[in-house]
Amino acid sequence: MPSTPSGQINVLIVDDSAVIRGLLSKMLSADDRIHIAGSVGDGAQAVKAVTAGGVDVVLLDIEMPVMDGLTALPKILEADKDVKVIMASSLTSRNAQISLQALETGAADYITKPSSSREMTGGQQDFARELVSKVTGIAETSAKVKSRSGTASPRAAAAKTGPNLFSPDKEIKLVKRLGVAPRPSILAVGSSTGGPQALMKFFTNLDSSIKVPIVVTQHMPPTFTTILAKNLNENSGFTAKEAEDGDTLEPGRIHVAPGDHHMEVVDERGVHKLRLNQNPQENFCRPAVDPMLRSVVKVFGSKVLVVILTGMGFDGQKGSIAVHEAGGNILAQDEESSVVWGMPRAAAEAGVCSAVLSLDELPAKVQSFVARGAL
Predict the structure, then answer these.
(1) CATH 3.40.50.2300 fits 9-161, yes or no
(2) Has residue 79 got a pLDDT over 60?
(3) Residues in contact with 48: Cβ distance below 8 Å, sequence separation at least 6, in sequence order
(4) Are 200 and 227 in contact (CB under 8 A)?
(5) What is the rounded distance in angstroms from the CA atom of residue 105 to the CA atom of residue 119?
(6) Are 297 and 328 in contact, with CB atoms under 8 Å apart?
(7) Would you please indicate which residues are annotated as catalytic (active-site) residues?
(8) CATH classification of 186-372, choosing from 3.30.1300.10, 3.30.540.10, 3.90.1150.10, 3.40.50.180?
């Protein structure tokens, strides 16, 4: 691989379509932080390229001849344990399931690409923004990129995708309330990059007998959220479903916001229900965490417990501030256990978190709040 300027992100594009490879290369190379280290047409060539060195991020298609993406993934990670892999697939039920399986196998993230070069060109601006954001955000967690650039902060990616809410060396101050916090009447969870794995681990380790409804917003497109809810239902110990408009909140049930819809909680004559809408994106996302959090504050006031898990960007920060101001409590995942410490960091730096804990520690802390409130 040719040498690149210090700090640039070396990306390998793997797709069986030369046209798609060309379009992806054009979109990525338009950002001066990114260098295209190579472009190949199948998984076998990708393994060879990664083995040769000089790759930070692999954009890996799923369906390819010779060797498909899911087969190539473990071989790529074996060839270079520090490389970050982003799965790329069209939006089908099969590909969504494979992408979630790839995340469990070690992929860092996924992106849904338009099903044709014509669609990709037509929606180029939004797709290109998401693509660049994912590549730069994931690269910020790469030990190789950090060592070359001398930085370890997510601020560079944030600056390209929205307001720069991260402050250099900002001290994180935890909230210390007097007395016992109110026992929550609802648990609201927000997550993005790394979220599917984190959600499964979090709920698997959380006592499934807790008697409060649970609402989850994970940044995902349609079809993906359907499969995420199905996987949580089958493997976490909780009953989980993708939310439908008009669903009634049920204690102990996980309600997952569907892709391309914001999910809000409303009080309709004393009955707590879920309402879905396609209002404009917030923080470049739909579903977004902030509208969900604003809605639970309106209905439950101080009796809200929020958990912000791993994710890129700052979605959930404003909503967490609203929860805090109403007297509710916020917990955030720590940097070490996060795939990308963006969303939890944004909440933590806002000074509204009661605790910043590892993914292993969060379930017990949640349980203490739900069981009796917590100091």
Answers:
(1) yes
(2) yes
(3) none
(4) no
(5) 30
(6) yes
(7) 192, 219, 315
(8) 3.40.50.180
Percent helix, strand and coil across the chain, each to the nearest 5? 40, 20, 40
Q: Residue 363, preceding bond cis, omega within 30 degrees? A: no
Length of the chain: 375
> What is the predicted pLDDT for the residue at 164?
39
In whole angstroms, give the CA distance from residue 181 to residue 204. Answer: 25
Scanning the structure block, which residue is given the tokens 């309106």?
Answer: 298
Decide: 34 and 9 in contact? Cβ < 8 Å.
yes
Residue burial 129-152, b: 16+ Cβ < 10 Å; e: rest? ebbbbbbbbbbbbbebbeebbeee
Q: Which residue has the tokens 């494979």?
A: 98
213-259 per-position pLDDT tens digit: 999 999 999 999 999 999 999 999 999 999 999 999 999 999 999 99
Q: What is the H or E stretch that residue 254 is in? A: strand 253-256
Main-chain phi, psi angles of 22, to 5 degrees: -65, -40
Q: Where in the chain is the domain with CATH 3.40.50.2300?
A: 9-161
